Amino acid sequence: MRERYEPLPVASSVFRTVRIGGGFLPEGHRLPKLEWLVPTADDCREAEQTGRPAGLSVWDMAFARHADACWYREVDPAEHRSFWVLVDVVGQVAARNRREVAVVADPLSLPEDDRAAGLDPEQRARLERAGGGHSLIEGLRRPEATRKQDQRRLLDELAHEFSPLLDQE
Amino acid sequence: MERLGPDLAEIADRALETVSAGRSVYVEGPIGSGRTSLVKEIERRSPNAVVVELLALEEVDAPAVALLETAAALPPDGRPRRGTGTAHEAHASARQVVDGLAREGKFLVLRLPEDWRAVEHQPYDDVINAIVRRARALLDGLLEGRAVVVVADAAITSTRLGFHPELVLQLRPYKIHLEALAGIPWGTCLDAYERLQAESTDLAASPYAWRLAVGLVALGESPRAAVRLLRAEPPIPGLVREITNRVKARPRILEAVTRLLAIRRPIDTATFSRFVAAPPEQVSLMTQCLGYGAEQTRVAPPIRAQMRSFLDQEERTSEQAHEELARHYAGLDGANDVSTLGVEQVRSWCEKTHHLALSGAAGLARWNEQVLPSPEFYWDKARHLSIVERDYSGAAEVYRRCTEAFPQDDYAWHYMAFNLQRAGKAREGVEAAYRKAIELDLENPWWNSRLVTFLIGDAQPAAARLEWSEAIARVDPDGDQLRNGTWLAKHLYRWVAEAWLGAGRAAWAVEVLGPIPQATLQASQPLLELHSQASMANPGEGRESPSWSEFLSEVEVRCALPSGMGAHVRATWAALRAAAGPELPLPLADRTADGERFQFAWSYRSVLVEVEVHPNGAIEWFSRDRVSGAVEGSDEPSPGLPEELRPWLDRVIHA
Questions:
Q1: ipTM value of the model?
Q2: Closest C-alpha among B76, B33, B70, B35 to residue B49
Q3: N or C: which end of chain B has fewer CB within 10 A?
Q4: pLDDT above 80 for B4
Q5: What tens digit of pLDDT does each residue of A80-100 get?
Q6: pTM of the model
Q7: d(CA B309, CA B311)
Q8: Are B124 and B79 in contact (CB under 8 A)?
Q9: Comparing C-alpha atoms, which of B191, B186, B183, B235 is closest to residue B213?
């Protein structure tokens, strides 16, 4: 298990899981949306508690699959979609935009609840491993001194580097 | 020969007499009319007969296998060599083979399964479906100019095939009473046979229908119900359906049936039984009811096809079973290269290669060792990977290898692109392969429509629109095909219009459907409904997509917006529509990630535009030219749509 906030190796790949629903999503648009790469209000609140930059929840593909991420978040995999990116590329985009962005480990433990109690040993082992792959992309929240347009440019360049995750199950 | 009905000896006489005089013969008859017996009789009497039993056309490799088997009757140096793999070459090769047979004093006896009725008489270049095109090219080559004997299912007339033989014979439907089949070794089905016989003393049916009925009774159906099915015309589909339903409920028998359905050719009975591996009490069901034959057991192609159609995807033959069959045939062909093999070995090689293609990882290495003489053998494997295993990367790789071996194979180029796309591979490779397929077959409506819909889905609407114009210019520049029926509208226009609708561009969908004559629309319910949907969603007619209107009317709930904000969102949309006009496509729309605003966004390859609505109705916006990188937008929210935004909305329309 990685140490919390330990930087991921640059050769790693991480994926972001987003909900396809609630909003309106016609076909023929290039995804992911920029908004899917913006730390949510919950992400920001957690950052205030930890004292770290707001982090965007992502998962290391070497540890977790789309379905694992959905299990942890208690959401329906069919209503969510994942997009992946190379950690090294995240760094390159950040550098071009003169921003400090880091991809760090944020391992999760299996919750102590009824769902986990109902897992068979193989499922349990797989999900424990997947939890170890939970990570954060820190630094994507707009610093106050940064113009909104520069922030959107960063996110747009970053979104361009994401690709749909093939295993959406 | 045992006389069981029609005088096959006399028919064989007439056929041989005619073909010996250099004239062609066409014999047609339904299942059980004696076609197999007739072919055997001709073969027995004439050592110059080259008998080729075509595989059902549902088998991807059917035309290629037919050509190989026919050519195998010639010395290796007289056979066609592997070339471009095109249908044109298949036609020329077939001619070469038939001419070669004639020089050797041989003649062809071609056994046609029922589903070859799809190979209608038309120039093969006009046939869109690649497999049917090759079948047409093959038949054109085999049937032109030389005396042949064609034995076909009654559903196929010679005229439909474009074949004009000097002699046409019909085998009458052959119906018997069940007691005439008392000599069949019914084994564990004997009780079923006897009970059925007691219930059906006055009934006559074809031998195969009786076999199936006995099998159905052996599976637990009442003889009375079986007799009802026998009285239907035709009886076989109902019998097969009921047998399949009963088999599906019994896993061990289902397993055996899925193995049986993998067998494409007559196979020696001992191997048949061993391979099918039915429970002992069901062996007779397999060998005497579903299959038939004394030394060699076969399953009639229509029975195979019908049973497979009634089974679900997960009830298909296992890879392991295919691998076992591959090993059986590998013991008979002894080679990786078919080019010098004799007739029986060619048949075995084709079966081996087919089953290796479907045997997954276990057969992959050996499949890779085979020297594949034509594209269909690659298609066979690639289609299995794509359709059954959903291994799109693997399928794309096989198609890629096919394009290396046969660079003019438009089918392989197109489906390489299709599978690359499904596998999420780099879009440049996908687009290039789609374009290559069109380059090789300019007028193919499917290749053209898929490129356009790919570009739409790839967030390149302007490129898609341009490509659509060029597609029409290639496929139907004068609109003749569109006026002459519904086919082109259904296979070209429909897909593109649906894609535009899905992309929120109803005005462009209406534009695509515009040239379709009203009579064509009326003749096709799906087209009529599509036209109606597009019209109802067309902002050019003062409307919006119903799903979009519904979303806007419920946006407060759908996006958990604060009270009163929904009205601002709807007002902003109305302003955007008024500013940009009916061609403005529907946006991505949702609350922002921080929950503080509502956002409309258009995200295409060339441009991004975001318009955000604050709770008080103020607007912020951001745009980026994704080609040059230039950005523009507001630093602070302001009331109403700013003028600077309008050119960007135009760019969204023409992205």
A1: 0.92
A2: B70
A3: N
A4: no
A5: 999 999 999 999 999 999 999
A6: 0.92
A7: 6
A8: no
A9: B235
